[in-house]
Design goal:
Layout lengths: L12 H5 L5 H16 L4 E4 L3 H5 L18 E2 L2 H10 E4 L3 H12 L2 E6 L3 E6 L2 E11 L7 E8 L5 E7 L1 H4 L8 H16 L2 E11 L1 H16 L4 H12 L4 E9 L6 H10 L4 E4 L4 H10 L9 E5 L4 H14 L16 H13 L1 H13 L5 E6 H8 L26 H34 L8 H10 L1 E7 L3 H15 L4 E4 L5 H6 L2 E5 L6 H5 L2 E3 L4 H38 L13 H11 L2 H9 L5 H6 L6 H4 L5 H27 L12 H23 L5 H25 L7 H6 L2 H8 L1
Parallel strand pairs: 11-14, 12-13, 13-14, 15-16, 16-17
Antiparallel strand pairs: 1-3, 2-6, 4-5, 5-6, 6-7, 7-8, 8-9, 9-10
Helix pairs in contact: 2-5, 7-11, 8-9, 12-17, 15-18, 21-23, 21-26, 21-27, 22-28, 23-28, 26-27, 27-28
Length: 747
C-alpha cells in the first residue's frame, strides 16, 4: 500500500543508521532503494493546498536546486524537510507510487523530474541523473528499463524492473544461488497475496551506452517494422543484469468485496477472474475474496507448456468428475438460408425448453470445483476456436527497384508498399482457404470435440475460473470464447488500462475509476468507484430498467392494437369502404398526446419491488430468466389476447348500447356521437389497464393519468375553436348529458 506522505519520516538518514552494523546489507538495501526511486514513471508535483502555494519557492527544481554543474550538492536538512512536505507523487500505476513512497521512507527521495533529468535526495545529498532512454513497459515485455547517467561521477546505469518470470531469464547466470533464493521469496510473497516486481541493474561503459542509443534511436525512427526492431534492440541490451531485490506491494481488497461476490453467485452469475498476477497471488486473492473455499471446493490447477499436455490435463479432470460424454460442440450456421431460418425460429420459439435444460444441468452438478489456469495453458485452450493474432508479413524496404536500379525515395516507398500489399493479399487468400477447410471439418457433426470445447465444458462444472498471467489480448479472447460457445450475456469489469480490450469485447462494460486511472472508465458503458456498487447496478437498477422497458413496450403494443382493432371491426359495418369510426383528431392525438404521458412516467419511476428487498434476496435476480417480461409470449399476450378481447367487448357493447343515444331534445345521436363514445371507452380502458400494469402508484403516475383524461376532453373544444371542426360541435356537451353513455363507460 502507498503510505501516507504525512506519515513518512522526514529524517530518512536515521533509517540507514540501523544497517551500519552490516555494510553489505546496507549497500544492498541502498541499491534496491535507489532503483525504486529511479526506475518508474512517477512525477513529483506540489500539493494543491494554500501552504504549498505560499512556500512553493522551497521546492528544488532541476533548473536551480541541483546546481549548474549538476554535481551532487549538500542542502540543509530544514530545506529538504520543507520540500518533502510540499511534494506529492502522481503516476499512472499505484504500485509505482507506492514504491517511490517506500524509497522515500528508506532515505532516497524523488525531488524533481523532467523529460531528460531526474533529481533525488540520497540521505541529505541532492544528486541529479540524466535520463538517456526509457524502455517502456507493455504486456509482451512485462518489464520497463531506464538508462541513466550519474552527473556526480559520470557513470552510466541501466535499471530494470519487471515480472519475475521474465526478469529471471535476464539476470547474470553467475548469480544462480541468489536467484534460487529469490524464487522462494517471490513464491512466499505471492502466497501472501502480494504483487511482486524483481529489480536489477547493469553498469555500462560510455561506448556501450552510445552504441545502444544509436541503435535504439534508429529503430524508433524506422518506418518499416518499427515495433519489431525496437523489441530486438531492447531485448539484446537487457541481458546479464545484476540482481538487486524484490518488491512486494499489497493489492488491498475493496470493502464488501466478499459479500458482493457471494451475492452475485446466489443470483446465478458465473464469475471468471482474468488477472496478470502470478498464480499464487491470484489464488491467495481468490481465497480472501470468497471466490475459493478450501473446505468445500475442489481447486484444480492447469499448467501446461504445449497443446498436447493441456489436452491431457483437461481430459484427466473431466475423467475424474465423470463428465467425458455429451460434450456440447459449437453450433455453426447452416449453409442453406432455409435451414438457418428454421433453426433461428426453432431457437426463438423453444428458448424456454433450452434454458430449462441448462438450469437442470447446472442443478445436477455434483462437483463444487474451481479451475486456476495460467496464460500459457490458456493460449492452448483458445487455439482451436479463436484465431491467434498473427503478424502481417514483414519485409525490409530496399532502396533499389526491381531492376536493381536506384530510384528516388518516393518511388522506392511506393514500390515497397505495392509489394507489401501484394504479399498481404496472397497471405489473406491463403488464410481464407485454410479457414474454409477448417470450417468444413468443424461442421462435421460426428467429429470429436476440440480442446476449446472441452475446456469450456469443464468450466461449466466450475463455480469459479481464475486465469492468471494473462495478457490484455487473452482477456478479450476469453470473453469472445464464452460468447461464441455458450451464447451468454457477458459483463466485464476492470479498473486499469489492461482491461480496456476485455471491457470493449463484452456485451456490458463496467469500469472502476480510482488509483489505476480513468482508462477503463472511459472505455466502459458504466463506471463507479468501488466493486461493491456492481451489486446494486445489476440487481436494483438492472432489474428496474428491465421492468420499465418491458412494461413500456407491452403498453405500446396493447394500446395501439386495441385502438386499431376497433376501427378494423367497424369496416364490417361500412362494407370496407375505408371510412373510420373515430374522428381524425382523435386518431392523430391518441398515441402521441392523450396516452403518451403515463408510459413515460412508468418508464422513469416504475418499481416492482423495493430496493431493500432486491438487495437482500439475490434469488430474485434470476426470477425473470424463465418468465421474461418481454418476448413473443408477452407480445402475444398483450397484443393478441388482451387488446383483441377488450376491443371486441368495447366495439360490440358500444355499437348496441350507444348507437342510438336519445338526446335531451328527443332526437337520436348520429355517427359522430357513436364514434366519440367508442373512443372514450377505448381511452379509459387503456388508462385503467396501464394502472393495473403499474406496481408503484406514485403521485406523478396518478397525475399523468389525470392529465391524460383532461387532454382527452379538451380535444373537442380545442379543435372546434382552432380549426372549426364541425363534426365535433356539440358532441361533448350532448354526450356528457346522456346517462346511457356513462353507464356504458362504467361497465
Amino acid at each position: 500500500n502507498s503510505p501516507n506522505a504525512d506519515d513518512i519520516d522526514q529524517k530518512p538518514s536515521s533509517r540507514a543508521e540501523t544497517l551500519v552494523e552490516s555494510p553489505e546489507l546496507c549497500e544492498a538495501v541502498q541499491s534496491l532503494t535507489l532503483a525504486m526511486a529511479l526506475c518508474h514513471n512517477v512525477v513529483p508535483e506540489p500539493k494543491d493546498d494554500e501552504d504549498a502555494l505560499k512556500e512553493s519557492s522551497a521546492i528544488i527544481d532541476l533548473e536551480s536546486g541541483g546546481g549548474e554543474s549538476g554535481m551532487g550538492s549538500a542542502v540543509s536538512s530544514a530545506t529538504l524537510a520543507k520540500t518533502s512536505k510540499l511534494i506529492e507523487y502522481q503516476g499512472s500505476s499505484p504500485d509505482e507510487v507506492a514504491l517511490v513512497h517506500s524509497a522515500r521512507a528508506f532515505g532516497i527521495e524523488l525531488l524533481a523530474r523532467s523529460q531528460d533529468s531526474v533529481m533525488i535526495n540520497v540521505y541529505g545529498t541532492v544528486i541529479q541523473y540524466d535520463v538517456l532512454a526509457e524502455l517502456e513497459f507493455n504486456s509482451d515485455r512485462k518489464r520497463m528499463s531506464v538508462v541513466l547517467r550519474d552527473k556526480e561521477n559520470g557513470k552510466y546505469w541501466l535499471y530494470t524492473k519487471g515480472a519475475d518470470n521474465i526478469m529471471l531469464g535476464l539476470i547474470d547466470p553467475s548469480q544462480k544461488d541468489i536467484l534460487d533464493k529469490a524464487v522462494e521469496h517471490v513464491d512466499f510473497f505471492a502466497r501472501e497475496g502480494l504483487r511482486t516486481l524483481l529489480f536489477a541493474r547493469k553498469e555500462l561503459t560510455e561506448e556501450q551506452c552510445t552504441e545502444f542509443l544509436k541503435q535504439f534511436n534508429e529503430a524508433k525512427a524506422s518506418l518499416v517494422d518499427r515495433e519489431s526492431k525496437v523489441d530486438t534492440v531492447e531485448a539484446a541490451f537487457e541481458t546479464n543484469l545484476s540482481y538487486l531485490g524484490i518488491s512486494a506491494v499489497e493489492d488491498r481488497l475493496q470493502s464488501d468485496l466478499a459479500p458482493t461476490i457471494a451475492f452475485l453467485r446466489k443470483a446465478g452469475i458465473k464469475i471468471w477472474v482474468l488477472t496478470g498476477d502470478k498464480r499464487q497471488t491470484a489464488e491467495s486473492i481468490g481465497y480472501s475474496s470468497a471466490l475459493l473455499d478450501a473446505e468445500s471446493m475442489d481447486v484444480r490447477h492447469i499448467e501446461a507448456h504445449d497443446y498436447e499436455s493441456a489436452e491431457n490435463r483437461v481430459d484427466e479432470i473431466l475423467k475424474d468428475i465423470g463428465s467425458t460424454d455429451n460434450i456440447p460442440k459449437k453450433e455453426y450456421p447452416a449453409k442453406s438460408w432455409i435451414r438457418r431460418a428454421w433453426n433461428s425460429t426453432k431457437k426463438t420459439v423453444l428458448w424456454k425448453k433450452y434454458l430449462r435444460e441448462i438450469i437442470e444441468r447446472e442443478s445436477k452438478r455434483k462437483h463444487n470445483m474451481a479451475i486456476i489456469i495460467d496464460g500459457v495453458s490458456l493460449q492452448c485452450m483458445l487455439a482451436d476456436e479463436l484465431p491467434t493474432m498473427q503478424k502481417s508479413d514483414k519485409s525490409t524496404a530496399s532502396e533499389k527497384d526491381d531492376d536493381g536500379e536506384k530510384g528516388d525515395e518516393e518511388t522506392n516507398r511506393k514500390k515497397f508498399w505495392l509489394k507489401k500489399r501484394s504479399k498481404s493479399k496472397k497471405g489473406a487468400a491463403r488464410t481464407a482457404e485454410e479457414t474454409r477447410k477448417k470450417n468444413e471439418l468443424d461442421r462435421d457433426p460426428n467429429r470429436e470435440p476440440n480442446l476449446t470445447e472441452k475446456f469450456m465444458y469443464l468450466c461449466d462444472h466450475c463455480e469459479t475460473v481464475i486465469c492468471c498471467r494473462v495478457t490484455p489480448l487473452q482477456k478479450a479472447l476469453v470473453v469472445r470464447m464464452i460468447q461464441s460457445l455458450r451464447d451468454k450475456i457477458t459483463l466485464a469489469i476492470g479498473d486499469g488500462a489492461n482491461d480496456v480490450s476485455m471491457i470493449q469485447e463484452a456485451h456490458i462494460g463496467v469500469g472502476i475509476y480510482g488509483k489505476e486511472g480513468m482508462n477503463a472508465s472511459r472505455a466502459a458503458d458504466y463506471s463507479f468507484s468501488e466493486f461493491r456498487f456492481l451489486r446494486r447496478l445489476l440487481c436494483v437498477h438492472g432489474r428496474y430498467a428491465y421492468v420499465r422497458t418491458a412494461g413500456m413496450m407491452n403498453m405500446q403494443f396493447y394500446k395501439n392494437m386495441f385502438f386499431v382493432c376497433v376501427q378494423f371491426y367497424y369496416q364490417y359495418m361500412c362494407l370496407f369502404s375505408g371510412n373510420t369510426v373515430f374522428n381524425q383528431w382523435y386518431i392523430s392525438t391518441f398515441n402521441v398526446v392523450v396516452t403518451s404521458i403515463p408510459p413515460f412516467i412508468y418508464g422513469c419511476f416504475e418499481r416492482d419491488l423495493r430496493a431493500s428487498t432486491l438487495m437482500n434476496h439475490p434469488e430474485l435476480y434470476r426470477s425473470y430468466r424463465l418468465y421474461p417480461l418481454i418476448g413473443i409470449a408477452s407480445v402475444a399476450e398483450y397484443a393478441g389476447v388482451y387488446a383483441v378481447l377488450h376491443s371486441i367487448v368495447v366495439f360490440v357493447f358500444g355499437t348496441y348500447a350507444t348507437g342510438d343515444i336519445p338526446l335531451s331534445n328527443g332526437q337520436l345521436t348520429g355517427f359522430d356521437y357513436y364514434g366519440f363514445a367508442l373512443v372514450s371507452a377505448v381511452t379509459f380502458v387503456v388508462l385503467v389497464k396501464m394502472m393495473m400494469m403499474t406496481h408503484w402508484w406514485n403521485w406523478l403516475f396518478l397525475l399523468s393519468i389525470a392529465v391524460s383524461v383532461g387532454i382527452f376532453y379538451l380535444v373537442p373544444p380545442f379543435f372546434v375553436q382552432l380549426f372549426d371542426e364541425s363534426s365535433l360541435i356539440g358532441v361533448l356537451d350532448e354526450t356528457m348529458r346522456s346517462s346511457t353513455f356513462w353507464l356504458f363507460l362504467v361497465l
